[in-house]
């Protein structure tokens, strides 16, 4: 089991945070462009799913699989977007992403008056805590 | 345990076949008194609930009928504007039927080509070499399974999240497509599929799911 990389976007599509732990293929474009493409992918999937769905749902899009990786998605009501890529044999990481939001993002970014909310996160403490948490997951 | 619908998308992202197999009922009818507690707004020429979920009426539902008269876009059949009808206290009590908006053919074509590009982007943003595009997309209401054949045709099945064995169904649909659509001398490739036999066999394949939710391979 592997965790490849993680993106955090704010509600306007700015990439607040990106980290990769293991990545075997780059997307072949500048990182800025890749963030825009990833946000566009998530945004379109959300709109696609809400229109395509034959039933009413609560959370909407949660994850997708290709034949090599699995993308987990979590969005708290404030519109932040957590995206985590893992290998296929990983179970739903919804709770882990929820924890990342509750106990890492809120604790070390929202409660840090020196962190501005709509700009990329510079806090070293946040990065360190997140890295420790992800490395501690059984899926890592 | 159900299969909701089947889509077939050609190499260029065009929708060549679409079938709704099972449509869950989401319609709710309710009689309201003045003033209406729901907030409505116009989205794509439809009257949509913007705020105020209650009694099974959800945000995103559209108005399907007012006092039993079917609705066309934002107007009633006789041309009266719905929002004006609802704003007028003379018309109360008023019975309004809400439900999930039905997809028009144009919207389906648009959604199919949208998925075609999402599929490609999913493969491009992969952290692993040689990844395919999206094969399974999960939500808490349905799962979308996609199988891309070697010739680039995408077979898409929307099913209940608990439904298993969709991989087998996708391959069976591919078989039916090769047997009844491709071998039909009147069918030109990449064009919409209008083959009676294909329709019939596809229904024959999917109908057991409706009754038992169980798939027998002896079919």
Automatic annotation (TrEMBL), chain A:
<dbReference type="InterPro" id="IPR011012">
    <property type="entry name" value="Longin-like_dom_sf"/>
</dbReference>
<dbReference type="GO" id="GO:0005783">
    <property type="term" value="C:endoplasmic reticulum"/>
</dbReference>
<dbReference type="GO" id="GO:0006888">
    <property type="term" value="P:endoplasmic reticulum to Golgi vesicle-mediated transport"/>
</dbReference>
<dbReference type="Pfam" id="PF04099">
    <property type="entry name" value="Sybindin"/>
</dbReference>
<comment type="similarity">
    <text>Belongs to the TRAPP small subunits family. BET5 subfamily.</text>
</comment>
<keyword id="KW-0931">ER-Golgi transport</keyword>
<dbReference type="GO" id="GO:0030008">
    <property type="term" value="C:TRAPP complex"/>
</dbReference>
<comment type="subunit">
    <text>Part of the multisubunit transport protein particle (TRAPP) complex. The heterodimer TRAPPC6B-TRAPPC3 interacts with TRAPPC1 likely providing a core for TRAPP complex formation.</text>
</comment>
<keyword id="KW-0333">Golgi apparatus</keyword>
<dbReference type="InterPro" id="IPR007233">
    <property type="entry name" value="TRAPPC"/>
</dbReference>
<keyword id="KW-0813">Transport</keyword>
<dbReference type="GO" id="GO:0005794">
    <property type="term" value="C:Golgi apparatus"/>
</dbReference>
<keyword id="KW-0256">Endoplasmic reticulum</keyword>
<protein>
    <recommendedName>
        <fullName>Trafficking protein particle complex subunit</fullName>
    </recommendedName>
</protein>
TrEMBL record, chain B:
<comment type="subunit">
    <text>Component of the multisubunit TRAPP (transport protein particle) complex, which includes at least TRAPPC2, TRAPPC2L, TRAPPC3, TRAPPC3L, TRAPPC4, TRAPPC5, TRAPPC8, TRAPPC9, TRAPPC10, TRAPPC11 and TRAPPC12. Interacts with SDC2.</text>
</comment>
<keyword id="KW-0813">Transport</keyword>
<dbReference type="GO" id="GO:0005794">
    <property type="term" value="C:Golgi apparatus"/>
</dbReference>
<dbReference type="Pfam" id="PF04099">
    <property type="entry name" value="Sybindin"/>
</dbReference>
<protein>
    <recommendedName>
        <fullName>Trafficking protein particle complex subunit</fullName>
    </recommendedName>
</protein>
<comment type="function">
    <text>Core component of the TRAPP complexes which has a function of guanine nucleotide exchange factor activity for Rab1 GTPase. Plays a role in vesicular transport from endoplasmic reticulum to Golgi and autophagy. May play a role in dendrite postsynaptic membrane trafficking.</text>
</comment>
<comment type="similarity">
    <text>Belongs to the TRAPP small subunits family. TRAPPC4 subfamily.</text>
</comment>
<dbReference type="GO" id="GO:0005783">
    <property type="term" value="C:endoplasmic reticulum"/>
</dbReference>
<keyword id="KW-0256">Endoplasmic reticulum</keyword>
<dbReference type="InterPro" id="IPR011012">
    <property type="entry name" value="Longin-like_dom_sf"/>
</dbReference>
<keyword id="KW-0931">ER-Golgi transport</keyword>
<comment type="subunit">
    <text>Part of the multisubunit transport protein particle (TRAPP) complex.</text>
</comment>
<dbReference type="GO" id="GO:0030008">
    <property type="term" value="C:TRAPP complex"/>
</dbReference>
<keyword id="KW-0333">Golgi apparatus</keyword>
<dbReference type="GO" id="GO:0006888">
    <property type="term" value="P:endoplasmic reticulum to Golgi vesicle-mediated transport"/>
</dbReference>
<dbReference type="InterPro" id="IPR007233">
    <property type="entry name" value="TRAPPC"/>
</dbReference>
